[in-house]
Amino acid sequence: MASRRYKVKKTAQVAEREEVKDFIENPEVLVEQFSKTEEFFQKHRNIVLGVLAAILLIVGGILGYRYYISSQDEIAQREMFQAVFYFEQDSLTQALNGDGLNFGLLDIIEDYGATKAGNLARFYAGTSYLKLGEFQNAIDQLKAFSSPDLLVQARAFALIGDAFMELGNYVDAADNYDKAANYKSTENISSQYLMKAALAYEKQSDYAAAIARYNKVLNDHFGSPEFQNAKKYKARLETMASK
């Protein structure tokens, strides 16, 4: 049976090679194939041209959009310069709203939100709102922000956690601190976020979860500045939990 299958397979392979050889060496075969192609094109000319036109429009649209966004990003970066200066000077209201002559961060977000500069403006705006005590606005802006920079994205999660803590929402605060701690941050930064997460869990009276975060600092971040505090706070919680 196996021998028979092998012979059938071999025969098929030989036939296929012969067909390819005829196609390459025999001009009449080539002419026939081209004639079939031309016949198909003539029969379905409108469909083929329509598909090609659609492909060109899609490709052209993508390239055009990328160029547009790139040029808009350059403009947004220039427009945002003064707002960032105000932010760095802690003139947060002017940073957010502008000074009457220059754009504020909120203007950049509204007019250039799809650009990299517009995305970064959300981070600055969220941080500004947090410092001003407008915690829900801070959360909204920081949630809309995203960054491929691991440290900056982790920082955004932690700031969202800070805003939720101020609002007394310790569940969402702990969740965002955990995100920040686990977002491939450096050792020292991760340990800071773990300590904040532990506090948020303690505020919920979830002592087991808080102790777990202190243990992570003790086990994974031995050289961090938070190590001694983690040991002290863990012992305190273990005493509280045993009562």
Specify Rg, calculated over alpha carbons: 32 Å
Count of domains: 2
Biggest sheet overview = none
Strand tally is 0
The helical percent reads over 70%
Order of helices and strands: HHHHHHHHHHHH
List the uncertain runs: 4-10, 59-69
The fraction of residues assigned to DSSP E strands is under 5%
Query: Average pLDDT, to the nearest integer?
Result: 81
Query: What is the overall shape?
Result: extended
Oligomer: single chain
Give an overview of the whole structure:
This protein has helices at residues 2-25, 27-43, 45-88, 92-97, 105-112, 116-132, 135-144, 150-166, 170-181, 187-203, 207-220, 227-242. The radius of gyration is 32 Å and the shape is extended. By secondary structure, the protein is mostly helical. It folds into two domains: 28-146, no CATH class; 148-243, Tetratricopeptide repeat domain (Serine Threonine Protein Phosphatase 5, Tetratricopeptide repeat), CATH 1.25.40.10. α9 runs antiparallel to α10. The longest helix is centred in the first third of the chain and has 44 residues, at 45-88. The chain starts with a helix and ends with a helix. The protein contains twelve helices and no strands.
